[in-house]
Amino acid sequence: MKVAFISLGCSKNLINTEQMMALCRDAGYEVTGEPEGADVAVLNTCGFIDAAKSEAIENIIALGELKQEGKLGKLLVCGCLSQRYREDMKTELPEIDGLMGTGSYDRIVPAVAAVAAGGRPEEFGDISATTEEGERLVTTPSYTAFLKIAEGCDNFCAFCIIPYLRGRYRSRPMEAILKEAKALADAGTKELILIAQDIGPYGKDLYGERKLPQLLRELCKLPFHWIRLHYLYPDHMDDALIDTIASEPKIVKYLDIPLQHCSDRLLKSMNRWGTEETLRKLLATLRERIPGVVIRTSLICGLPGETEEDFERLCRFVTETGIERAGVFQYSREEGTRAAELPHQVPEEVAAQRVERLVELQSRVLDAYNESRLGTVMEVLCEGFDANMGCYCGRTYADSVEVDGRVWFTAAGEVPAGEFVQVRMTGTQDGDLTGEIEE
Q1: What is the average pLDDT value for the chain, to the nearest integer?
Q2: What pLDDT score was predicted for residue 130?
Q3: How far apart are CA 29 and CA 412, in angstroms?
């Protein structure tokens, strides 16, 4: 039986997809990424915000059309959208033959067998009791891999539905993480990307204290070239962690710290840590103690109660702190969250305008950063030759996978994907850097 997997949403979701792929492979199924011609397609969905829900529904409809054309057998939908809208999906999306929630990824083999036999399985286990152990079929390029160190979230930000879809925070045992990391290193991984909804509290639930610094030091003993960290919430950035990041050469000096806003009033209403003053002090401390650090963050425009003064404060904050990378999002009013019930909801058109303004402002900060790199030589991880551009592309330590820019560079000879090269930066292009290999 041929089983096709399609993964939507974040890298954490991708790992669950890779685990399901391995389970199906071990059960004797042929695993593919192409739904056309498959007996069963498994769609792992995201249900975080409106855009993600729309993408998932569009994929369900497209796969349903393949079924109608006789090019696909059955459709099994799992993940966050299923967990969130189980009953609605059963009645509103007849294309679906089976459903699984986020607590049942390990039930993929019996679910596939049931749906292939004409059943309509529904697997919805305890979302706070899932295990993250087991093999994966890694789908990223051989030189880059994600490593999930925890699942779930205990932050309960007022605007976020994730804890209700993924359960409470659950750290993986350190020995299991290191075993998986060693296997990735042995397979040729050069860039290891640590992920969780929040990696900062790692270990507190298992060991009674945060163990991220210790875990990082152990990972740095393995033969990775880069170790990248996603995501570090500001309340967990203590001295021990900052010292570890600063002192370990393999840990790239790129920190993704979701801030969301800087208004004291909005931070409090959204159940977020800190104040504008403490956030400014944290960023100043990071820049002082980690030379060359590049900061990435997530920002939300249009939170309930956001005034024009709050927004202008956020604009000044971004400019004055020099945040090099930012994902700017329009607030999505999600049912089931506390923020959805708050008064003073910002009109969507106002929030959209604020997103445009902040994106434009932050792009100037990025342009200034890129200009500061001109003439310097930077280490670049080559990701291959782009025939359309007629040159190679890659990433520096300041560019994470998919979310940031790229470096476009020329070379006299062939440069294999996955090789680290030294590139002299000579120009900019649409927010990216351009350069040539330093001979």
Answers
A1: 96
A2: 73
A3: 45
Global pTM value: 0.94
Phi, psi of 99 (to 5 degrees): -130, 145
> What CA–CA distance (Å, rounded) separates 322 from 325?
9
Angle at 199 between CA 137 and CA 269, to 5 degrees: 125
Nearest CA-CA partner of 94 in 111, 108, 119, 75: 75
For the stretch 369-410, pLDDT in tens is 999 999 999 999 999 999 999 999 999 999 999 899 999 999
User: How far is residue 230's CA from residue 295's CA, in Å, rounded to a whole number?
Assistant: 12
Residue 47 has pLDDT above 90, yes or no: no
Task: Using alpha carbons only, give the angle 345, 359, 159 rounded to the nearest 5 degrees.
Answer: 35
Beginning with the edge strand found earlier in the chain, give each strand of the sheet holding 30-32 in spatial order.
30-32, 2-7, 40-45, 74-79, 98-100, 122-123
